From TrEMBL:
Top-level taxon of origin: Bacteria
InterPro entries on file: DUF4386
Pfam families in UniProt: DUF4386
The keyword Cytoplasm is assigned to this record: no
Upper taxonomic lineage: Bacteria, Bacillati, Actinomycetota, Actinomycetes, Micrococcales
Record keywords, A-Z: Membrane, Transmembrane, Transmembrane helix
Protein name as annotated: Uncharacterized protein DUF4386
């Protein structure tokens, strides 16, 4: 695959990933209700669709990491490997979260509610919560820091887009770390910390599809390093 084809494919995968994350995540939210099993009982189809969309998200994450590796390796092989590894780990955590949601769904409406005497549904919900949190925020932010630092150094996209991505990656990583440590953020703060990376990935996706990688900027960057 040429760099142009890779850029267009990665751009399309960024769009697929963002859309499936937003739509799929909103569909699976029902299992986080206090009486989750009873809430999900009448809407299993919607939750199952959301889980399938999240699996598509995980596959798109894997695809982005794999496709970008040969392009990034020519700039810094170590960081390229680190980026591919982080995105693979992110996909694994997202898949684990999806499987946990399916297991919870399979518990059926007759099983004990998460807050009742039964421990299994509560443990499955906890697994879902932690794997999704780490995958969709902590590892997403870590991967973004690696990617945008490489894009900036190699001048593969405009400087403003790389710097925006770095700031956005820090914000989503910050939200993930805060939630890992149990800080209950308001909806406003959650949106403020997550929106920049979502919008940035859409802009990056369109840029890669329309313009591709900035070969001229990359050549100038190599000249300056010499």
């Amino acid at each position: 695959m040429t760099d142009r084809v890779i850029a267009r494919t990665v751009g399309a995968l960024f769009i697929v990933g963002t859309v499936t994350a937003v739509v799929g995540g909103s569909m699976v939210l029902a299992i986080e209700d206090p009486g989750a099993l009873s809430a999900v009982a009448g809407d299993q189809g919607r939750v199952a669709t959301g889980v399938l969309l999240e699996l598509v998200l995980a596959l798109s994450v894997l695809g982005i990491g794999a496709l970008l590796f040969p392009v990034l390796r020519r700039r810094d092989e170590g960081l390229a490997l680190a980026y591919a590894g982080v995105r693979t780990l992110e996909a694994v955590f997202l898949m684990a979260a999806s499987v946990a949601a399916l297991v919870f769904l399979a518990s059926g409406p007759g099983a004990p509610a998460a807050g009742g005497a039964g421990r299994a549904p509560a443990l499955v919900l906890a697994l879902r919560e932690w794997t999704y949190l780490i995958g969709s925020m902590v590892l997403l932010g870590a991967g973004g820091l690696i990617l945008y630092s490489l894009l900036f150094r190699a001048a593969l996209v405009p400087t403003w887009l790389s710097l925006w991505g770095l700031v956005a990656a820090v914000l989503i990583l910050l939200r993930g770390v805060l939630e890992v440590y149990g800080l209950d953020l308001s909806v406003v703060w959650q949106a403020a910390l997550a929106a920049p990376i979502a919008v940035n990935e859409m802009v990056l996706a369109v840029w890669l599809i329309v313009r591709g990688f900035d070969a001229a900027g990359a050549r100038a960057s190599r000249v300056l390093r010499r």
